[in-house]
Design goal:
- This protein is of the alpha+beta class and 324 residues long.
- The chain has three domains: 2-66, Structural Genomics Hypothetical 15.5 Kd Protein In mrcA-pckA Intergenic Region, Chain A (Roll); 83-163, Pseudouridine synthase (2-Layer Sandwich); 168-320, Pseudouridine synthase.
- The protein is built from seven helices and 15 strands.
- The protein has helices spanning 17-22, 30-38, 112-119, 152-163, 239-246, 272-278, 307-320, and strands at 2-7, 42-44, 47-48, 61-66, 83-86, 90-95, 143-149, 168-176, 183-187, 189-192, 200-203, 213-222, 225-232, 283-291, 298-302.
- It is globular and about 70 Å long.
- The termini are far apart.
């Protein structure tokens, strides 16, 4: 166990304790700082800090115990992986739909992390004992490209690239309705819902929530539906799903934000069974560009839409033909 001692300097006045702690040597991220506070490892003037949002005061004495990383209890599970690239520092995976990225209640042994542990014995420990190597994630129902760090050097570099918006991502999605124009941008801040903490929601009051920006381009149109290319400029939780729902074009099959449903009669009625068989939101992470964390080379990887989404698009083209 390591320990951190320091006196809050004058320039740190009115800074949150989690932000200040995250800058100390030995603390890897703000998330780790918040975890240390929640677990009772942080003291100011010999008093336990209970709120990560506490504003520190110059002259206060900070003491923090940093426990050694707990050994992972994750169980390797042999699951076939579609690996697009791998070296000693990272692995790029094309995640299938319906696979959870890391262990969580209800999915403790059938996740991407479990599959990676069966594939390689080296994953960055900085991701945490239950999320080794995970620097970003995709929802269970979203398919597509995911980068995983195999070394701590890669973890730190990739985390910084995501934070500084250097990673460029492209998604494809099938949404309800016809977009207004061929291209556009959605700029709505996002925050966690006050009614359901598992959901996110847009904030229309200036200065509230976290900035979120999504650009979109229409690839194809069908009666009552649009196939889009999406480029998130920020990386908020559920950003694409929340943004599209907020502008009246929820992603087809989205179980949380997809308020629209196929009508019992009409041109789209035959697709009701096809979408039900999809059992997920029609969203795919199709392309990613980033800098290799060690060589600095710019890398780009692409993955075509998986079979379930291709089948849905093919069915649409058979029914209606391509209009756009």
């Amino acid at each position: 166990m390591s320990r951190i001692y320091c006196v809050v300097p004058p320039e740190a006045r009115e800074i949150r304790i989690d932000l200040f702690l995250a800058k100390q040597e030995g603390i890897r991220s703000r998330g780790e700082a918040q975890r240390l506070i929640r677990e009772g490892h942080v003291y100011l003037n010999d008093r336990l800090v209970q709120r990560p949002s506490y504003k520190i005061v110059p002259g206060e004495r900070l003491f923090c115990e940093v426990p050694e990383p707990k050994p992972s209890r994750l169980v390797p599970l042999s699951i076939a992986l579609n690996i697009l690239y791998e070296d000693s520092h990272l692995v790029v995976v094309n995640k299938p739909p319906h696979m959870v990225v890391h262990p969580a209640p209800g999915h403790l042994e059938d996740t991407l992390v479990n599959a990676l542990l069966a594939h390689t014995q080296t994953l960055a420990v900085m991701g945490g004992s239950h999320r080794p190597g995970i620097v970003h994630r995709l929802d269970k129902g979203t398919s597509g490209i995911l980068i995983v760090a195999k070394s701590d050097v890669a973890f730190l570099s990739l985390t910084k690239q995501f934070k500084e918006r250097q990673v460029k991502k492209t998604y494809h999605a099938l949404v309800y309705g016809q977009m207004e124009g061929d291209t556009g941008i959605i700029e709505h801040a996002i925050t966690r819902s006050g009614r359901d903490r598992k959901r996110m929601t847009v904030v229309r009051v200036p200065g509230e929530g976290r900035e979120a920006v999504t650009t979109w381009e229409v690839i194809k149109t069908f009666p009552g539906l649009s196939f889009l290319k999406l480029s998130p400029q920020t990386g908020r939780t559920h950003q694409l799903r929340v943004h599209l729902s907020a502008v009246g074009h929820p992603i087809v099959g989205d179980p949380v934000y997809g308020r629209r449903r196929f009508p019992p009669t009409g041109v789209l009625a035959p697709l009701k069974g096809v979408v039900r068989a999809l059992r997920r939101q029609a969203l795919h992470a199709s392309k990613i560009t980033f800098l290799h964390p060690v060589t600095g080379l710019r890398l780009t990887f692409e993955a075509p839409c998986p079979g379930d989404l291709r089948s849905l698009l093919q069915k649409l083209e058979e029914m209606f033909g391509e209009k756009g």
